Amino acid sequence: MITATPASTETATFTNPLLSGADPWIIKSEGTYYYTYTQGGSIVVYPTEKVSELGKASPVTLWRPASGTSYSKNLWAPELHKINGKWYVYFAADNGTNANHRMYVIENTSADPVQGSWSLKGKIADPTDQWAIDGTILEHNNQMYMIWSGGIAGGAPQNLYIAKMSNPWTIDGERALISSPEYTWEKYGSAINEGPEILKNQQGDVFLVYSGSGYWVDNYCLGVLKLKTGGDPMVRSDWVKTSSPVFAQNPAAGAYGTGHNAFFKSRDGKEDWIIYHARSLPNGAENNGRNVRIQKFTWNTDGTPNFGEPVKIGQDIKVPSGE
């Protein structure tokens, strides 16, 4: 008699952290995810078909700045965006002095961002031309906006600003202040709002998820601004801020300084995931080492995101659906 072999019920899993690094960003195009982060001296991406296997991906250097320029050093928080069929990377850089950090953008007209050539389109600045980092893009009601973290020479407070764009490399008009550190959880280490990222739900509601406090402290966390229905992104009062963090440290999970995130969909588009950096040990020392983690999140009945708590390092997590 031949006995049938039971079907396998084993589920593919992974564990956090996936790899070392800070300020993670990820985007999916034509079946491939492209991950980038603060590498410092160049713009580097890691192509992968499975985000849970990001640690196995090989880096590809997209662009390296010429020496001796205003953007040669300290390239921070790059973001890769596909706009009107072209690829753009937005990043902050300086000449070796933090007070000179400004936003810049490079462009590639190829269908695949790791093919073709990248060229510098220039600096992106509003008329004040003040210290600026962590630029991201919002497309809303057929208008493109840039949102970034800025201040005066990098001093506190560090605020979130928004400005309209006439094209992917040009700010058009004055900036508007939309968030300043006001709660205690936004002021640990220093009064900082940074790392703005756009998240939209199925209903089209616009959320701006950002990092509060100094990245070097254990209390670094995420807060949310929600754009009112029918609101104007340029009007501060049309953004409603949560009064408490939506994602914060979890000592029991080995997660300290949780912040500077991005979002992505699972391969089959059925799940929402967050990618963020954290430290595995407390006390926020720079040499503690930030590392990159991912986990699934859900949505509350009112349409707001529910990120839960950071999952414990080393704990088995089911891979994103479709992998």
Automatic annotation (TrEMBL):
Annotated site residue numbers, Important for catalytic activity, responsible for pKa modulation of the active site Glu and correct orientation of both the proton donor and substrate: 134
Query: Which superkingdom heads the taxonomic lineage of this protein's source?
Result: Bacteria
Q: From the Swiss-Prot or TrEMBL record, what is one GO molecular function term?
A: hydrolase activity, hydrolyzing O-glycosyl compounds
Query: Which GO BP annotation is one of this protein's?
Result: carbohydrate metabolic process
Kindly give the InterPro entries that the UniProt entry links to this protein: Alpha-L-arabinofuranosidase (IPR016828), Glyco_hydro_43 (IPR006710), Glyco_hydro_beta-prop_sf (IPR023296)
What's in the keyword line of the UniProt record? Glycosidase, Hydrolase, Signal
Residues the record marks as active site: 23 (proton acceptor), 194 (proton donor)
Q: Which family does it belong to?
A: Belongs to the glycosyl hydrolase 43 family.
Q: What is this protein called?
A: Family 43 glycosylhydrolase
Which species is this UniProt entry from?
Arcticibacter tournemirensis
